[in-house]
Amino acid sequence: MLTLLKLLKDGHFHSGQALGAQLGISRSAVWKQLQRLEADSNLSIHKVRGRGYQLAFPLDLLDEAGFSNSCYPVHLHEIVDSTNAEAFRQINKGHSAPYVIVAEQQNAGRGRRGRNWESPFAQNVYYSLVLRVDGGLRQLEALSLVVGLAVLNTLKDFGLQAVGLKWPNDVLVGDKKIAGILLELVGDPADVCHVVIGIGINVNMRTATGVGQPWTSMSLETGMRVERNEVINALNKRLKNYLNAHAVTGFSSFHAEWEKNHVWQGRDVSLMAGLHQVDGVVVGVDQQGALRLCVNGELRTYSGGELSLRLRDDS
Ligand code: BTN
C-alpha cells in the first residue's frame, strides 16, 4: 500500500494503467488497493474518468532512509494500533533497546487516562522510544517531565516560541495542546525494566473531529507545512541529550528549567482524581516530579498517572 501511496503522493493525476505498470499488477488490482487505501487511511482520492487517480492533497511520507544518521535506530511502520503497543511487542520478542518506533498512522493511539490519541495518516508524529533501565528508581525520577522539556525544545527548534508545559506532561501553545507524552513501563522499576516513551506531536494536522480538548499543530502555529522526518530527527537529538544528562544528575538539574516553563506556575487550579477534586495554588514540582500545591495554606504533594489539572475559573 505504501508503494502505491508513494506513486500518488505528488498530488498529480496518475492513470490506473501507469500505476498498474509500475506496481506490476492489473488495473483492477490498482482499483482494489486504492479502495483499501481510502478506507484504511482515511485519505480522499479523486477518480476522474480519462485522467486517473489523484490524492486530494499532496502528502509527505516518512522516509526510513532519512533516519539513517539518527542517534537511535528508527523502525518505520505504515499503520499500527499504537506505537507504544508495538514497542511492547518488540520488547517481548527480546529486541535490544534503545530503538524508536514511528508510524504513519495509529488505529488505537493511546492517550493518558485511557483516552484515545487522534492519529490520522501522514499528518503527525507518532513516536515511541524504548529504553532499558537498569539503574534503579533514580533513572526514572521525574522522567516524563524531562521528556516534556525535550519535546518543548524540539518545538522551539522549529520556531514555535510560545510553547509551555502543563503538569505532568502536556505540551501546550496558549491553552491548546500540541503534544502529549505517555510513559509506560514493563519489568521491575527497582531493578531492570524497559520504559516506553510515547510521544504524539500534532505536526501538519489542520482539522480533526475526534479531539476532545482545544488543540493546535505546528503547521497551524507556523503557517507552514513541517517535514515530519526532520521533527523526528530533532526529537531524537533532544531526547538523547536530555536523557543522557538525566541519567547522570536525575531531575535536579532540570527542576528550575521545568518550573520556568510551567504555564500554570502560581495559578489557582483544581486537581482532579476521578470525581475527587482538590483546589489549591501551584507551587511547583518536587524532586520526583510530583506536583506541589498549596491547599488552604498547607503544602501538599501529588503524584500519579490518573491525576489531571484544571485552571480554576477565578484564576
Ligand atoms: C496524552 O494523552 O497526552 C498522551 C498522548 C500520547 C500519544 C502518543 S502517540 C505515540 C505513542 N503511541 C501511543 O499509542 N500513544 C503515544
Automatic annotation (TrEMBL):
It catalyses: biotin + L-lysyl-[protein] + ATP = N(6)-biotinyl-L-lysyl-[protein] + AMP + diphosphate + H(+). Gene3D superfamilies: 2.30.30.100, Bira Bifunctional Protein, Domain 2 (3.30.930.10), Winged helix-like DNA-binding domain superfamily/Winged helix DNA-binding domain (1.10.10.10). GO terms for molecular function: ATP binding; biotin--[biotin carboxyl-carrier protein] ligase activity; DNA binding. It holds the Pfam family BPL_LplA_LipB. InterPro entries: aa-tRNA-synth_II/BPL/LPL, Bifunct_BirA, Biotin_CoA_COase_ligase, BPL_LPL_catalytic, HTH_11, Transcriptional_repressor_C, WH-like_DNA-bd_sf, WH_DNA-bd_sf. Residues 16-35 bind DNA. Its EC number is 6.3.4.15. Keywords: ATP-binding, Biotin, DNA-binding, Ligase, Nucleotide-binding, Repressor, Transcription, Transcription regulation. The keyword Nucleotide-binding applies. Biotin binds at residues 82-84, 106, 110-112, 177. Residues 73-247 form the BPL/LPL catalytic domain. GO terms for biological process: regulation of DNA-templated transcription. It comes from the Bacteria. Acts both as a biotin--[acetyl-CoA-carboxylase] ligase and a biotin-operon repressor. In the presence of ATP, BirA activates biotin to form the BirA-biotinyl-5'-adenylate (BirA-bio-5'-AMP or holoBirA) complex. HoloBirA can either transfer the biotinyl moiety to the biotin carboxyl carrier protein (BCCP) subunit of acetyl-CoA carboxylase, or bind to the biotin operator site and inhibit transcription of the operon. HAMAP family: Bifunct_BirA. NCBIfam families: birA_ligase, PRK11886.1-2, PRK11886.1-3. This is Bifunctional ligase/repressor BirA. It comes from Pseudomonas lundensis. The gene is birA.
